Amino acid sequence: MNERGQGTIRRRAALPAAAALTLLLAGCGANLSSLNIFDSNKATTEAALDGAPTNAAAANTEYECPAVQVRTGAAVLSIGNETKATAEGEPGAVNLRYQGTIIRFARECHVAAGVMTMKVGVEGRVITGPVGGPGKVDVPLRMAVVQEGVTPKPVASKFVSIPVEITSAVDRVNFTHIEEGLSFPVPSPPALLDAYVVYIGFDTLAAQQKKPAPRKRR
Predict the structure, then answer these.
(1) What is Dmax (Cα atoms) for the chain?
(2) Strand locations in the chain, DSSP E?
(3) Contact predicate 9/62, CB 8 Å
(4) In this predicted model, what pLDDT tens digit does every residue of 112-156 receive, in sequence order?
(5) Side-chain-side CA neighbours of residue 35 (13 Å)
(6) CA angle (35 as vertex; 7, 156 as ends), nearest 5
């Protein structure tokens, strides 16, 4: 049963993340409490913070906190030797240096002045592959809010690069990121929030575009 109250936000349980693709990841789940983004089952609103709703409509408005899903095709990050990639541009199994996966995620919402701000936490893992070893991996993570429908509409997007340090030849390192500023206007009517989805995944194309161009020798 949904809990109702003045200016509250309903929150749906986060969908399970993509299944791990290697046996090394099996049975190694992390605790969502480490993300520290779930203080209660209800999100706050501007009216609640002020101590009273601004009007009768605000008092009876109930908002959906968009669900989070891992985007299809963006659940696994594969990093290999650039000179030994497959025809599709992905490293082959024997040329894999590092593999990243998303293992857990969570979110909460807040509405103020007609704007919804989401706090999205993502937890993932990087493991070394057959030709991997100590080094640094920049994990390219994209979070995008989309209004689904016949023609999906992009609403908001954030890209971050998360540094992960690999310290040994055979290693697995967890990483976390909490995005607190994923904001967008509440649609009218608010029921349209039912069609909003937050997609998360690895965005290697954006990471390549952000790399500085090599300096030319004179």
Answers:
(1) 70
(2) 9-11, 63-65, 67-70, 76-80, 96-112, 115-128, 135-147, 153-166, 172-185, 196-202
(3) yes
(4) 989 999 999 999 999 998 888 899 999 999 999 999 999 999 999
(5) 25
(6) 55
